[in-house]
Amino acid sequence: MKIETDWSLQETARRRDTYYAASQRKFVPFAEPMVFKKGAMQYLWDEAGRKYTDLLGMNVCISVGHSHPDVVEAATAQARELTHCTTMFYHPVPAHFAEELAATLPKGADGDIEWVAHFTNSGSEAVDLALAMARTYTGNLDLLALRNGYHGPTSAAQSVTGIAAFRHPGLPGNVAFVAEPNQYRGVFGSGTAPYLDEIDRTIATATTGRLAGIIVEPVQGYGGIVEMPPGYLAGAAERVRAAGGLYIADEVQAGFGRTGDHMWGFEVGDAVPDIVVMAKGIGNGFPLGAVLARKQIAEPMADKFMFHTYGANPTSCAAGRAVLKVLARDRMQANARDVGGALLERLRDLQQKHPQIGDVRGRGLMLAIELVKDRKTREPDPETTMAVFENCREAGLILSKSGPYRSVLRMVPPLCLSMADVDQVADGLDHAFRSLNS
Ligand SMILES: Cc1ncc(COP(=O)(O)O)c(C=O)c1O
To answer: Which residues contact 90 (CB under 8 A, 6 or more apart)?
Structure first.
């Protein structure tokens, strides 16, 4: 059966404007809309056949490459056989995937950490579940979260999201926010200690003193690629554990080898989390999320139902299994490290040339440049960021505007970005800055 689709930009825009609710219509980054028709690895093509390099990775969902043949093949084979199987019946594909994901996580200094998985449909559902698990296990309600952190649109995930633009009225409470340890423009300047002191102060003043946990992105994504400085993750985990809480790592953006040196962003620090939240890159575009928790922490949830309809969907899990295979076979984590390192160098060169670039940061293929009106005052420059972003589109580059002031250009491409792409990206960005005054 052939189902007709009208691919024209004009008609697609008209249909969206007419039939999408305001809540879904708002998310349009460019001045003029775009339609994408095709993707292959790190590249995209619009409906008119123009090619772009996707530095956004379709919002960090594309880990191993657009329409990666191995992932498509695995999912298609599974969908042909049985597209969905509710979790109440047993299916080997999600069971294998749970085992394979558990094997990617550290066993701890004593080698005795046992990891178990609960699959969800999305990252925010996984965040909600992680918070419920922490509250159930500890018997405490209070959570710490970081300002500038993003954890998703569901109510509980929003309640720990520290960016006003993503928060809606009526969110659950019992969340206290601590200042994010932003080394470029953090409220306490650079260093780790002042931000750990802030955790102590916040526990002492804004909570009951007994915590369910802290949720933290090892590298803040929508917050504008803010890395946790050395010692922060372990220091935060130590303080939260002393108050009875758990350490929850949100790896939705930083996970699956993106940061280059490690499979998981938290591995940059010494502390092993109690709960790890995964999504996006886990399915390379197939909808999927997961909570991996230490077995004893997940166990008290056995008393009640927690049923995500498509949670352990075998088609998405088949895609996920293929993602893990491709990551390992094609050494994509190492590629992220090497290609990301080369791109970082080029971004630093651009910083020398263009005074609008206040900061260059990130690791692996999780990079950003932050634009400022003045390097001394570090006043954010969202207008120039918007202009560079539009110029990049003209140069065939898709980036993302991020950060609390929309003044950060975030680069989170598929992990197959190549050394040859680095030149095109750096030259395109250079051109985008040089075109500002023309
Ligand atoms: C760090 C982080 N956590 C959680 C989420 C929520 O994931 P989802 O959009 O799949 O619900 C996101 C989504 O952007 C994210 O970036």
So the answer is: none
Q: Is the pLDDT of residue 438 over 80?
A: no
The preferred substitution site among 131, 253, 277, 366 for testing ligand 1, maximizing ligand atoms within 8 Å of CB, is 253
Nearest residue to 126 via CA among 118, 134, 116: 118
Pocket of ligand 1 (CB under 6 A): 122-124, 127, 150-152, 217, 221-222, 250, 252-253, 279, 289
All structural domains of the chain, each given as residue ranges with its CATH number in brackets, are 9-64+333-437 (3.90.1150.10), 74-329 (3.40.640.10)
* Confidence (pLDDT) at 437: 76
Nearest atom in ligand 1 to the alpha carbon of residue 122 is 10
Residue pLDDT, tens place only, 93-145:
999 999 999 999 999 999 999 999 999 999 999 999 999 999 999 999 999 99
Of 125, 161, 252, 266, best ligand 1 pocket probe by most atoms within 8 Å of the beta carbon? 252
Q: Specify the pLDDT at position 303.
A: 86
* E strands, 257-356, in order: 275-278, 289-294
Q: How far is the CA of 75 from the centre of ligand 1 (A)?
A: 22
Max Cα distance, the chain (Å) = 65
Distance 226 CA to ligand 1 centre (A): 16
Over residues 365-409, the pLDDT tens digits come to 999 999 999 999 999 999 999 999 999 999 999 999 999 999 999
**Mean predicted confidence (pLDDT) in 164-192:** 96
Please give the full DSSP string across 323-389, using - where no structure is assigned: HHHHHHHTTHHHHHHHHHHHHHHHHHHHHHH-TTEEEEEEETTEEEEEEEEETTTTEE-HHHHHHHH
Whole-structure pTM value:
0.98
- Rounded Cα distance between 191 and 90, Å, is 49
